[in-house]
Amino acid sequence: MSEQVFSQRRCRDTRKPRAGECPEVVFYRCSSCGALFPVTGGSVLEEKEIVCCGQRAQRLTPLTQEDAGNSLKITYQITGGYNDNAVRVSWKALSAKDKPEWIYLKTFTGGYLKYVSDTKRSPMVFALADTDAFAYCDEDPCLECVFRCKRGFVIYVYGKQAGLIEVPLDKMNAHWQSGAGKEPDDGKVK
């Protein structure tokens, strides 16, 4: 019998956290210097007044992938199983000017912000730990089954051309039990 390995990042919770445990996030950006202000908690987040460079910062309104247009396409994959749980965010930009400036992953307990440098290529990986790493199974990559253990997570991607794109982690593959995502068995002996 093989011994189970428990990494430091593994979630030990016995139930999936509720999506509403982490407060919503709203993003403001200074139109002069480009400074970013993610604001969480409190009430009426949309009515906050953030001042930078002597003027009110602009509130970024999130768009769906469809509403954002074709200049920046965002996809994600959940990887790592129980011990190395992570969200891999990939993008395809029509040109270098369409590339993301930053990516924010809202989780069950908070959020992770990463800036995309000029030399960074897709994907950007967000390693998860503790409650954020909750998983029902040890599949790597995720089968996107009916349990959707990361439902409640949201990816926010900001590109100068596309604006703020909001991508909820709610994909579900209807063929997860059928093995449709696996290589077909051609009957040959390997």
Commentary on this structure:
The structure is a single chain. A hairpin with a 3-residue loop joins strand 11 and strand 12 (163-168). This protein has a four-stranded antiparallel β-sheet, with no helix packed on it. A three-stranded antiparallel β-sheet has the order 2-1-5, with no helix packed on it. 2% of the residues lie in helices and 32% in strands. By secondary structure, the protein is mainly beta. The longest helix has 4 residues, at 65-68.
Summary, kept brief:
By secondary structure, the protein is mainly β. The chain has 1 helix and 12 strands.
How does the helix and strand content classify structurally? mainly beta
Average pLDDT, rounded to a whole number, is: 84
**Widest beta sheet: strand line-up:** 9-8-11-12
Separate helix tally: 1
- Roughly how much helix do the residues carry, as a percent range? under 10%
Structural key phrases:
single chain, 190 residues, mainly beta, four-stranded antiparallel sheet, three-stranded antiparallel sheet, disordered C terminus
List the helices and strands and how they pair.
Blueprint: E1 25-29, E2 36-40, E3 51-52, E4 55-56, E5 58-60, H1 65-68, E6 72-79, E7 86-93, E8 100-106, E9 111-115, E10 124-127, E11 154-159, E12 163-168
Antiparallel strand pairs: 1-2, 1-5, 3-4, 6-7, 7-10, 8-9, 8-11, 11-12
